[in-house]
């Protein structure tokens, strides 16, 4: 069976994903377990033989703790939404000055604040906006 690359962009993505996986000290099998994507399929992505879907890229970005937007651009998937792609999560995950543990801690705190805010939105409150807020 002849092996051919599906495109320069995808090959670059595969190289990048492999680099990120190795930097995270993960085997292909471990990454497959973390993402729910098969080991052979991940191998084909890394070798530039397959173009992953946006959903697979999202799973990979979470497991490798890299920006999904960056993976979309590297995969040639552009314009998925009109936002700038600048989010708290992306900023934290892409900060080279933070360790993986620090990144996780910051994201955990941020997530807990978001959950608290969402819960506060669901609770009944006075007719004045912010009337029940603690200051």
Automatic annotation (TrEMBL):
<dbReference type="InterPro" id="IPR001387">
    <property type="entry name" value="Cro/C1-type_HTH"/>
</dbReference>
<dbReference type="Pfam" id="PF01381">
    <property type="entry name" value="HTH_3"/>
</dbReference>
<protein>
    <submittedName>
        <fullName>HTH-type transcriptional regulator</fullName>
    </submittedName>
</protein>
<dbReference type="InterPro" id="IPR050807">
    <property type="entry name" value="TransReg_Diox_bact_type"/>
</dbReference>
<feature type="domain" description="HTH cro/C1-type">
    <location>
        <begin position="17"/>
        <end position="71"/>
    </location>
</feature>
<keyword id="KW-0238">DNA-binding</keyword>
<dbReference type="InterPro" id="IPR010982">
    <property type="entry name" value="Lambda_DNA-bd_dom_sf"/>
</dbReference>
């Amino acid at each position: 069976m002849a092996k051919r690359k599906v495109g320069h962009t995808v090959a670059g993505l595969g190289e990048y994903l492999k680099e990120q996986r190795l930097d995270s000290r993960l085997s292909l099998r471990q990454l497959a377990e973390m993402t729910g994507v098969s080991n052979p399929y991940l191998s084909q992505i890394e070798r530039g033989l397959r173009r992953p879907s946006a959903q697979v890229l999202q799973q990979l970005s979470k497991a490798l703790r890299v920006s999904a937007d960056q993976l979309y651009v590297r995969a040639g998937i552009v314009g998925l939404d009109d936002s700038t792609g600048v989010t708290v999560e992306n900023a934290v995950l892409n900060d080279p000055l933070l360790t993986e543990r620090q990144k996780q801690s910051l994201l955990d705190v941020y997530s807990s604040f978001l959950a608290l805010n969402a819960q506060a939105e669901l609770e009944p409150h006075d007719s004045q906006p912010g009337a029940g807020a603690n200051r």
